[in-house]
């Protein structure tokens, strides 16, 4: 790692001044897991780290909040994955977030990794993470995965870059219709879908935050008594690994009929992939194994695999069916 | 005894340091290290900032107050091993993916390779060296030995720390132990014995 300066601002203003003063070199640090990884690999070499964990003002308080807010819930950006996984206030309605947090990375990494950092971490693509390679994301002319090794790359929504979005929490939060509050020169609250950028929008960035803008918290809307949600992932190793595919589902279930259905697949596309096709197949219908199979097929109908990742199609279909069965309480067929 | 006779294998490796051991490797072949890559520090930051050079750091290490001068870019693992000569936490992946470097920071199991030394300013750090008291192994360490919970031993110092963080809990089930060591890679596959040892130690310490 290249030597750097650490700043420990106490207020959002100080933090933003610090980050704005040197927009090219100064970066915000939360748990530091992704940042230190990139700095060790030599793909990032900031001259200053601006610590978010010491913020002691009102913003800092919101960034550590976890619990009810209005008729919904708030999860501060500095809340760790371990805190989320242990939190008992999510209930069946928001179980997807607890399950996602508890499945990501390892227990010790979860003790450090934060919600904000998890959403804003950079892609795991091995070409992007290699200091000696200049891929599209780093100002090069081509996504090296297209003609290279692409086992873990996108099968949906790819092009010109074929990264998959790395954030497990993003998958669950998208299913839960979360909003995120951002504070920069001005404060704004946006739907989580507006946080992420497709490579067609901007191949070099994955999110819409400007340098110095701080993600303050995620806000989960009101959940009815009949809301259910769930999350699952498949990995080469059960722990330690990023998923090959993940699925998060939310629905309201009344007398077996599903409404307000959200279906999101992770690690298959450059953004958390909301499948409107699967949602349409399920919306307003009674839950059944046959319908779930149909919805899973619809979710992957547009998939365009690269050389090494066609396996993700049946994998994501099977995973989505499994989560649908569990959330809707329909026994899995033999 | 002559000075020569007192050179131990461990001391020798410490003395040569990674730089010496790796001198023959091309840069691209070198395994990742926790040490700096030798580039020049950027210009000094404004007032209130820490670094880029060595800056004062104070924390408690295994019950003893430590005062050191550490540069901000040095990881906790590197500071412990290379500056303070506490070599219980091991360097394996250096990327948060194996758990060999696990230490307790205020009682919480953390990957010391993915923390900066200055993150523990004012905190209490426990490494495997801090488990034994006055030369007597801890209940957990004794249980590891009884249950043969190690083979090559390379994951053991980290494994012990993840398990130690569990022991305060009142009701400990097999699943709790399995979940707690899910970040500690053991290439020898000693997991079942580790789980047995921790359950045994939990009974003993209750
Ligand atoms: C072995 C291993 C396995 C892993 N497996 C998974 C997995 O399965 N799923 C998964 O999702 N992740 C996984 N990860 C990644 C890990 O979860 C992320 O690196 C971590 O969540 C990042 O959070 P952080 O707080 O450490 O972020 P940091 O490293 O501190 O920050 C990441 C980025 O976000 C920016 N940032 C952070 N917080 C804010 C904020 N509040 N406002 C504005 N900008 C901010 C930083 O500037 C930086 O660019 C794994 C990591 C390891 C080491
Ligand atoms: S050396 Fe720190 S986790 Fe592997
Ligand atoms: S005992 Fe050899 S790695 Fe665990």
UniProtKB/TrEMBL annotation, chain A:
Keyword presence, Flavoprotein = yes
Q: Where is the FAD-binding PCMH-type domain?
A: 1-225
The superkingdom listed in its UniProt entry is: Bacteria
**Keyword terms, alphabetized:** FAD, Flavoprotein
- The keyword Ribosomal protein is annotated on this UniProt entry: no
Which InterPro entries does the protein's record reference? CO_DH_flav_C, CO_DH_flav_C_dom_sf, Diverse_Substr_Oxidored, FAD-bd_PCMH, FAD-bd_PCMH-like_sf, FAD-bd_PCMH_sub1, FAD-bd_PCMH_sub2, Mopterin_DH_FAD-bd
For this entry, the protein name equals FAD binding domain-containing protein
UniProtKB/TrEMBL annotation, chain B:
Task: Quote the Gene3D superfamilies the UniProt record gives.
Answer: 3.10.20.30, [2Fe-2S]-binding domain
What's a Pfam family this protein contains? Fer2_2
Tell me the keywords, alphabetical order: 2Fe-2S, Iron, Iron-sulfur, Metal-binding, Oxidoreductase
Domain of life of the source? Bacteria
Recorded hits in InterPro entries, A to Z, give: 2Fe-2S-bd, 2Fe-2S-bd_dom_sf, 2Fe-2S_ferredoxin-like_sf, 2Fe-2S_ferredoxin-type, 2Fe2S_fd_BS, Beta-grasp_dom_sf, Diverse_Oxidoreductases
Location of the 2Fe-2S ferredoxin-type domain: 55-131
Q: Where is this region: Disordered?
A: 21-56
- Report what the protein is called: (2Fe-2S)-binding protein
Origin species, per record, is Nannocystis pusilla
């Amino acid at each position: 790692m290249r030597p750097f300066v650490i700043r420990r601002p106490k207020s959002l203003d100080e933090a933003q001044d610090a980050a704005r003063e040197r927009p090219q070199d100064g970066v915000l640090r939360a748990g530091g897991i992704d940042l230190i990884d990139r700095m060790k690999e030599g793909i990032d070499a900031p001259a200053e780290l601006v610590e978010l964990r010491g913020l002691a003002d009102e913003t800092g308080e919101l960034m550590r909040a976890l619990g009810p807010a209005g008729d919904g819930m708030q999860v501060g950006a500095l809340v760790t994955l371990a805190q989320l996984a242990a939190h008992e206030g999510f209930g069946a309605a928001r179980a997807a977030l607890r399950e996602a947090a508890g499945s990501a990375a390892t227990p010790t990494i979860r003790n450090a990794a934060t919600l904000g950092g998890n959403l804003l971490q950079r892609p795991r693509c091995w070409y992007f993470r290699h200091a000696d390679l200049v891929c599209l994301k780093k100002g090069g002319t081509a996504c090296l995965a297209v003609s290279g090794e692409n086992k873990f790359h996108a099968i949906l929504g790819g092009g010109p870059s074929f990264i998959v979005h790395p954030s497990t929490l993003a998958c669950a939060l998208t299913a839960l219709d979360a909003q995120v509050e951002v504070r920069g020169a001005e404060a704004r609250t946006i739907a989580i879908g507006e946080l992420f950028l497709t490579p067609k929008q901007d191949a070099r960035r994955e999110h819409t935050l400007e340098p110095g803008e701080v993600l303050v918290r995620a806000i989960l809307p009101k959940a009815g008594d009949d809301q259910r949600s769930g999350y699952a992932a498949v990995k080469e190793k059960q722990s330690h690994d990023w998923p090959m595919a993940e699925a998060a589902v939310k629905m309201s279930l009344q007398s077996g009929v599903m409404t307000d259905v959200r279906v999101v697949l992770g690690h298959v596309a450059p953004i958390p992939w909301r499948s409107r096709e699967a949602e349409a197949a399920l919306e307003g219908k009674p839950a059944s194994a046959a319908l779930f199979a149909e919805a899973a097929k619809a979710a992957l109908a547009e998939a365009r695999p690269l050389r090494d990742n066609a396996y993700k199609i049946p994998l994501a279909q099977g995973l989505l069916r499994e989560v649908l069965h569990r959330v809707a309480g329909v026994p899995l067929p033999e | 005894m002559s000075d020569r006779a007192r050179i131990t294998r461990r001391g020798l490796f410490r003395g040569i340091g990674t730089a010496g051991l790796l001198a023959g490797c091309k840069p691209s072949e070198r395994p990742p290290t926790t040490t700096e890559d030798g580039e020049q520090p950027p210009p000094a930051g404004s007032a209130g900032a820490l670094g880029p050079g060595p800056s004062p750091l104070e924390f408690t290490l295994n019950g003893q107050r430590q005062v050191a001068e550490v540069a901000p870019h040095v990881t906790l693992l590197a500071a412990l091993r290379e500056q303070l000569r506490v070599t219980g936490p091991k360097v394996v992946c250096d990327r948060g993916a194996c758990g060999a470097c696990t230490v307790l920071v205020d009682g919480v199991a953390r990957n010391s390779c993915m923390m900066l030394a200055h993150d523990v300013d004012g905190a209490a750090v426990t490494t495997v060296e801090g488990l034994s008291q006055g030369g007597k192994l801890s209940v957990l360490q004794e249980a590891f030995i009884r249950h043969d919970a190690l083979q090559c031993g390379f994951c053991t110092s980290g494994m012990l720390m993840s398990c130690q963080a569990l022991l305060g809990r009142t009701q400990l089930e097999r699943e709790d132990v399995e979940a707690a060591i899910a970040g500690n890679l053991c290439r020898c596959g000693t997991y079942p014995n580790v789980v047995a040892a921790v359950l045994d130690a939990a009974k003993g310490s209750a």
